[in-house]
Design a protein that fits this description.
The strands form four sheets. Strands 3-4-5 form a three-stranded antiparallel β-sheet. Strands 1-2 form a two-stranded parallel ribbon. It has a two-stranded parallel sheet with strand order 6-7. α1 links the parallel β1 and β2. α9 packs across α11, α17 crosses α19 and α18 crosses α20. Among the domains are: 88 residues, Glutamyl-tRNA Synthetase, domain 3, CATH 3.90.800.10; 106 residues, Arc Repressor Mutant, subunit A (Orthogonal Bundle), CATH 1.10.10. The longest helix is centred in the C-terminal third of the chain and has 19 residues. The protein is built from 20 helices and nine strands. The chain is mainly alpha-helical and 450 residues long. The radius of gyration is 27 Å and the shape is globular. It is an enzyme of class 6 (ligase).
Length: 450
Amino acid sequence: MHTPARVRFAPSPTGYLHLGGLRTALFNYLLAKKTGGQFILRIEDTDRTRFVPGATEKLMDALSWAGIHPDEGPHHGGPHEPYYQSKRTKIYQDYAEELVKQGHAYRCFCTQERLLRVRESSQKTGRLVAYDKHCSYYTEDEIKENMEKELPFTIRLNTLDDTILIKSDGFPTYHLANVVDDHLMGITHVLRGEEWMPSTPKHVILYKALGWTPPQFVHLPLLMNADKTKLSKRSGDVHVEQYIEKGYLPEALNNFVALLGWNPNSEEEVFSPEELIEKFDLKQLNKSNAVVDIGKLDWMNKQHLLRRAQTPEGLESLVDLLQPMIKTSFETKIRNIRDIPQLCGYYFVEPDYDSDDAKALYKKLNKQAVDLALASTTQETLGSLESFDAVSIKQWIHELAELNNIKQNHLMMAMRYAVTGTRVGAGVAETMEVLGRPVCLNRLAHAVKQ
């Protein structure tokens, strides 16, 4: 029998859910389910300078799509509410004050100007000192005088690096807030990226200063590009929403990220959500960084599509996914079932610009419209559209045609050629919405090479 694990995923609402964040959430979720424990979602929103409105909802939507459902959290309740750290500031301030009373922390009244001078002096002398402990030497009377003057202050941990625990705005830093919450919420295992490994010693110091037992720390290896550079936005798709937009199945993406840093010691690579829970074991986590291979994801998604197609329930779920696309795009054009693969083929395969249909279409196109459709500036403006829906795309095509003195229907047909390679199909803007921004941009780039 496994001891039930209480784990948490604690993202900051600063943008979309990163692929690495999905893996962290998934590993925590699998451990909780494997051991009969609980998976907690906690929103670490205390850094108000990086807070993005709406990001929390997007994070939770992405987790829900992936089938990672918390046992406790903002929308699920639980015995440790609230699950937003911004609503728990009084708790952190009380523990910080306790650390000050015990001599483990102190108030720092230094201005930004003085802190800058300290850093510059340290750099000139080659010292690795971020702060010189100036305020740790204040007497009780000096501290009282500063407090009566209502001077702004931070609270620092009284260690070698004098880590800030409470910022001047009263909000805690990650270091204090996560330690306090992990203890109060009974977290037994902390699974997080290895970028947090350098901070772990100070977290252990905090646990000991507060008289608490630390949880078990597990640091996950980095996700890398094929060239072994760290996965980043500049290198391609890194957000879960981008994979959703491209049409990947949630069980395929989960299966894919689960194998980025975990080896089930099996030749089998395709696992259902239930099989992942059954096989997951912390002892099988890898220490080396994991390479994100999109070709492998494509193969894995195909396997899960085939798995769904083997059962009536799975086929019904695929129909449910396809139905909105077909209804929106083809409800006036499909006359019988055999029309579907002919009219919908470009949703599933890349355009064949060498086909008779594509060649016939190309001959009818206005050359200026084709040049405009395939121009790099066109790709740039399409890539920067705030919303990628049919209405926005139609407006964009209209404005682009008008700006370049080209008839809108000529540009529409040139775009149809680039993204579908066919003469007949759904409306161009509707088709582009269903295909999604990344696919449309890739097809435009591919058409340029023809």
